[in-house]
């Protein structure tokens, strides 16, 4: 992890003036609570989803001087199988990068359906509650919880001392995603919605990743203060590198899950083969849809698509450089309920990307502000292919967009900027 010498510019959203000047803001400049508990079902060494962002936030708090504890699951995402070396519990209590990680067993949600997810989350969070009852984890004055799962938010309330501060971070609005993606019936979605409303209204403040997510929570009946803090990235660990000597390459990296709408990438690949035969598409990841995607690619005869595993964390920066253009597909019905954190990592790497999103969505709004990537209509693979081909064939344009994206990250989405905003919320001094 980088030390506390990161220098950043002033962020532009939800941050009152700091005692430190923006140009000299570093981890050591940020006042933090003496102790912090982070409750999240995903954490290091999981390489995708919310885990990288939450890991970086926890280690930033530790580097700034907070005694930081993470309550989490034995790692199992995105493969839905507990990682080798963790199933026996031998690593259930371990300090890594200054953070004490307390892990609990769970039943990974094989298949990804609603019932499997409920079992996974129910078992895990019952373990969280038992850890409190048995004294393994105590109550804290400063607590951060992460949704998913909304059960993490509910349990975190019990882990907060009377008079303490509990900040709920909402990366996914689970009721919205469940309804949009057809997971569970109407009764299940209604129950999740009620649980979200109740749990979030017990937090002291809520953080979402985009303005559309704030609007969804307000419509849900959440009345607690809601702050927008975009996804952040370790901008020292991820930075622009020269492109390797390779054919023109479009890269998707992340979970192979339903909400990504990855079938759009395969459909796009067929059009890209016509527009730019020399180009290739790397699909790097793992998850429940992996075999389905590979089978579909074979059936479509997509010789320009290459499947690879996710790169190890210590090779992430080099892996990001392999994409001349990155891909951020989304299913449009779920775009208001989540914000892809991978978008910020791509911008930090100084690469443009092409996303599928609707006008007014979080990514469409960011595209208009920053001009560092292109948005195309969902379910229009030809339009997506044309956008990818346009960037692959115009290196000057792609480079300029990459520079704009990197500048935006340095001003708004580095670990020191995020630490400052979250610390102010936990200390009760943020607007």
TrEMBL record:
Record carries keyword Transferase: yes
Pfam families referenced in this protein's UniProt entry, alphabetically: Glyco_trans_4_4 (PF13579), Glycos_transf_1 (PF00534)
GO molecular function: glycosyltransferase activity
Domain Glycosyltransferase subfamily 4-like N-terminal: 49-231
Biased composition (Low complexity): 18-27
InterPro entries xrefs: Glyco_trans_1 (IPR001296), Glyco_trans_4-like_N (IPR028098)
Residues spanning the membrane: none
Biased composition (Basic and acidic residues): 1-17
Coiled-coil ranges from the UniProt annotation: none
Chain positions covered by the region annotation Disordered: 1-27
Keyword Ligase found: no
Positions of the Glycosyl transferase family domain: 241-408
Keywords for the protein's UniProt record, in alphabetical order: Plasmid, Transferase
The protein's name: Glycosyl transferase, group 1
């Amino acid at each position: 992890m980088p030390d506390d010498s990161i220098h950043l510019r002033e962020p532009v959203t939800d941050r009152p003036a700091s005692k430190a000047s923006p140009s000299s803001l570093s981890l050591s400049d940020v006042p933090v609570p003496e102790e912090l508990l982070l409750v999240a079902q995903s954490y290091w060494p999981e390489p995708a989803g919310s885990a990288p962002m939450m890991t970086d936030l926890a280690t930033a708090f530790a580097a700034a001087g907070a005694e930081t504890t993470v309550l989490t699951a034995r790692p199992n995402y995105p493969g839905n199988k507990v990682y080798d070396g963790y199933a026996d519990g031998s690593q259930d209590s371990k300090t890594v990068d200054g953070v004490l990680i307390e892990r609990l067993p769970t039943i990974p949600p094989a298949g990804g359906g609603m019932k499997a997810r409920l079992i996974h989350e129910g078992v895990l969070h019952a373990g969280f509650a038992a850890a409190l009852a048995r004294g393994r984890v105590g109550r804290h004055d400063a607590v951060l919880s992460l949704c998913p799962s909304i059960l993490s938010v509910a349990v975190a309330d019990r882990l907060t001392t009377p008079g303490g501060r509990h900040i709920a971070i909402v990366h996914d609005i689970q009721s919205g995603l469940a309804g949009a993606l057809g997971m569970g019936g109407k009764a299940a979605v209604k129950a999740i919605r009620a649980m979200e409303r109740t749990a979030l209204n017990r937090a002291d403040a809520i953080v979402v990743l985009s303005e559309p997510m704030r609007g969804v929570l307000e419509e849900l009946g959440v009345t607690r203060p809601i702050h927008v803090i975009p996804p952040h990235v370790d901008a020292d660990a991820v930075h622009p590198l020269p492109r390797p000597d390779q054919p023109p390459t479009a890269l998707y990296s992340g979970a192979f899950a339903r909400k990504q709408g990855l079938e759009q990438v395969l459909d796009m690949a067929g059009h890209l083969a016509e527009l730019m035969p020399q180009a290739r598409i790397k699909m790097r990841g793992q998850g429940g849809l992996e075999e389905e995607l590979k089978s579909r690619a074979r059936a479509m005869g997509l010789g320009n698509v290459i499947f690879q595993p996710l790169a190890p964390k210590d090779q992430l920066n080099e892996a990001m450089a392999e994409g001349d253009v990155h891909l951020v597909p989304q299913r449009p019905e779920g775009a208001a309920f989540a914000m892809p954190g991978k978008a910020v990592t791509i911008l930090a790497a100084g690469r443009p990307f092409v996303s599928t999103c609707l006008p007014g969505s979080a990514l469409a709004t960011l595209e208009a502000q920053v001009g560092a990537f292109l948005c195309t209509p969902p379910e229009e693979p030809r339009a997506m292919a044309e956008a990818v081909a346009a960037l692959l064939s115009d290196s000057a344009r792609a480079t300029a967009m990459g520079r704009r994206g990197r500048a935006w990250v340095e001003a708004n989405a580095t670990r020191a900027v995020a630490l400052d905003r979250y610390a102010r919320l936990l200390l009760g001094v943020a607007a």
